[in-house]
Amino acid sequence: MEQIVESRLRNLDHIVLAVRDLEAAASFFERLGFQIGARNRHPWGTENRLIQFDGSFIELITIGSDPSKIPPHGAGQFSFGAFVRDYLGQREGIAMLVLTSDDAIADAGRFDRAGIGSFDPFYFERMGRRPDGSAALVAFTLAFATNANAPLAAFFVCQHHFPRNFWNPAFQRHSNGGRSILSVEMAVPDPSIHAAFLSDFTGRPAAREARELHFQLGNGCLRVAADAVRGAIPRHHAVSIEMPDIASFVARLNAEGIAYDAIEDGVCLPAERNFGTELRFRRKAADR
After folding, report:
1. CB-side exposure of 226: number of CA atoms within 13 Å?
2. Which structural domains are found in the chain, ordered by start?
3. How confident is the model over 177-212, as pLDDT tens digits?
4. Considering the entire predicted model, what is its pTM?
């Protein structure tokens, strides 16, 4: 099998946060002070709303009103809708980690040669809306990879074909001042088991720190932490978001009656109360 080592760092593109009630999740993130995009409906049975930052975003996703639209997994076919449906059958939380791609077709070939994915690239397009309400075509090609040691954690890379139609500073202005995703963390019993797969997926070697693995990305970091309780079933567990004015953010949390814990350089909202996802808000880019 071919080992993938890339000279250029990939960026974190987005995380897919699966929720059973999309509007409840959107309302919660609005209470936190985030701007939430309009509801989008996919022909494969899922619906989403987006929280956009400069160069990355959070995709809140759920199953739509007609689950019969969801295609099954097949030979060489990764069914996005089926994975989200099956994930939500067990829990809510970060179902997928997504990195950037300049050529998703080539990446699909590389994943196949490395033995981490033998799926056809997946192309789709839809009409989006600019801040002024005008229509804009957005299109993407996805290349999927699978980690046999983490069946509840999906991975893919995403190529944006019309990035100027997707990214927009007007969508990235949040009243809480949130700026970017700093890191995503997996919780697993033994990080070493996942090192080879994640090196092939990210194209980077693992940096080891105590019982953690770190994979440097161009705009952040993927962390893999040893946690026998939360990671009994290996999964994407937490996301850290840059929040420059922590004092004002804490005042917002208090006003909204949202429980939090203090952490170094910020605050943390526990996964048990927040759609299965530990939300960490930090004052500076310490996780990069």
Report:
1. 11
2. 12-172 (3.10.180.10), 181-282 (3.10.180.10)
3. 999 999 999 999 999 999 999 999 999 999 998 889
4. 0.95
